[in-house]
Amino acid sequence: MYELNNDLILRERAATAFPAGIYGHQASWSVSPRHPQFFSKAEGGRLWDTDGNEYIDFMCGYGTNLLGYGHPKVDEAAARQQALIDCATGPSPLMVELAETFNEKLAHADWSLFAKNGT
Questions:
Q1: Model pTM?
Q2: CA–CA separation, 30 vs 60, rounded Å?
Q3: No. of H helices and E strands in the chain?
Q4: pLDDT tens digit string along 12-21?
Q5: In sequence order, what DSSP letters do the residues of 37-88 get, joined into one string?
C-alpha cells in the first residue's frame, strides 16, 4: 500500500509540481497538514487518504457524486456510452435529450447549459 505519512511526502513533491503545492478548490481547506490532501480510494460515500484513513465524503465529490463513488448503475451506463462515443469533437444526441428532460422538469428553466471544469 502506501507508506505512513505518505500525504506529507506527496505534499512535498506537489510543492514543486503545482502552484503553492495545491490545486483548484482544495486551496481553501487543505493547506493544513491536519487535513488530507491526497486520496487513494473512493467507494460509495467514503474516501481513503494515502495514509489509509477512512473519511465520509460529506461534499459528495463537490456535489457530483450524489450516488456515491463507483455506483454500479452509474458505472454501467457510463461504460455503455463510452462504447458508443467517448471523447468526441462535438456532443452526442443524448445532450439534447438531457437538456430537454431538465427543461421539462424545471418550470423556471427555458434552456440548459452544460459545462465542464475541474478534473
A1: 0.63
A2: 17
A3: 4, 3
A4: 888 888 777 7
A5: --EEEEEBTEEEETTS-EEE-TTHHHHT-TT-BT-HHHHHHHHHHHHH-SS-
